[in-house]
Backbone:
């Protein structure tokens, strides 16, 4: 029994215990742990940089103005600034907006909700930005200054719009042609030309216009207001461009020359109309018959024969006429 016991004791090896102890020492070595921590930190920094770089690559950029957005949804909403699209419509007044959040803010107008109050006069507003803008009327603060000319503005957006005068920037591009515009309202008016829509109507003669500015200019015809006076002969005009064309008759400036016959014209539009006599082009086609015309005014007059429309109405006696010139002649007699 003793022999067997000794043999067993002799065959027991203390090495495994020593190895385990050495392994434990290696795992808890402070110097090595510090070095490993530094390496992991460096790897994490590289990883963070790569992640940031990847995020930057994922930014969605507007091809019209270069602005970058975080996701495709924000880009789609932003693009509506350039296209003029307003898919969110108020069911109470018909006004449209580019985003649902803007529509939500607008709806406060109908519900009477005005949670933002001016601390100077107590006037309340449905939007915080409008309240802040109003408060500047009390202080006279115009703290957004143009570095190019020194002119100051109340808001950042007003300053940015103004600065385009100096930079020549035209960020609003027409999706149907190559034209671009400095201001969004100008683009919206231009898009109406493509659609043919003329939503602004003259209540005196029934003529339609694409913008309030065009309608306002037209109304001078009815008021006989002619503020633009020729300095050479004293003749007055309701529109500045008509005065400029008239002044060319004094100067005999006919610098728009037909390449086919050499005839000169005072404006580009007059030259284009003339050139149709050489090309035979008749771009204005009747939707009722096969006739076509060189000028839109001739087409409009012709189509009234099909519709029997008399769109020019006298405001005094309600008599109607097919031609504005006939109405104008009638009103001279009727209004006396």
Residues:
């Amino acid at each position: 029994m003793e022999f067997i016991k000794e043999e067993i004791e002799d065959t027991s090896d203390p090495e495994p215990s020593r190895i385990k102890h050495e392994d434990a020492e290696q795992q808890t070595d402070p110097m090595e742990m510090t070095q490993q921590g530094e390496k992991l930190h460096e790897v994490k920094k590289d990883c963070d940089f790569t992640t940031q770089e990847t995020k930057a690559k994922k930014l969605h950029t507007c091809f019209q103005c270069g602005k970058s957005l975080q996701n495709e949804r924000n880009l789609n909403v932003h693009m509506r600034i350039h296209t003029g699209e307003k898919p969110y419509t108020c069911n109470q007044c018909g006004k449209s907006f580019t985003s649902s959040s803007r529509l939500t803010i607008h709806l406060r107008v109908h519900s009477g909700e005005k949670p933002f109050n001016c601390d100077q006069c107590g006037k309340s507003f449905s939007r915080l930005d409008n309240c802040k803008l109003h408060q500047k009327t009390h202080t006279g603060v115009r703290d957004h200054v143009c570095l190019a000319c020194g002119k100051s503005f109340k808001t950042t957006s007003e300053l940015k719009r103004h600065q385009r005068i100096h930079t020549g920037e035209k960020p609003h591009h027409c999706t149907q042609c190559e034209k671009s515009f400095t201001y969004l309202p100008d683009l919206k008016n231009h898009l109406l030309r493509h659609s043919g829509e003329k939503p602004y109507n003259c209540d005196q003669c029934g003529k339609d216009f694409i913008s309030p500015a065009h309608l306002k200019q037209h109304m001078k015809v009815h008021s006989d207001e002619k503020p633009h006076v020729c300095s050479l002969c004293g003749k007055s005009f309701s529109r500045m461009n008509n005065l400029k064309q008239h002044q060319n008759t004094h100067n005999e400036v006919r610098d728009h020359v037909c390449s086919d016959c050499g005839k000169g014209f005072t404006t580009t539009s007059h030259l284009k109309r003339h050139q149709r006599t050489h090309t035979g082009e008749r771009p204005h086609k009747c939707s009722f018959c096969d006739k076509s015309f060189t000028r839109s005014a001739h087409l409009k007059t012709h189509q009234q024969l099909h519709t029997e429309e008399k769109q020019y109405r006298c405001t005094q006696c309600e008599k109607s006429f097919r031609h504005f010139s006939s109405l104008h002649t009638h009103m001279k007699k009727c209004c006396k």
Remarks:
- The first helix runs from residue 2 to 11.
- Confidence is low (pLDDT under 50) at residues 1-28, 47-57.
- The domain at 142-197 is CATH 3.30.160.60 (Double Stranded RNA Binding Domain).
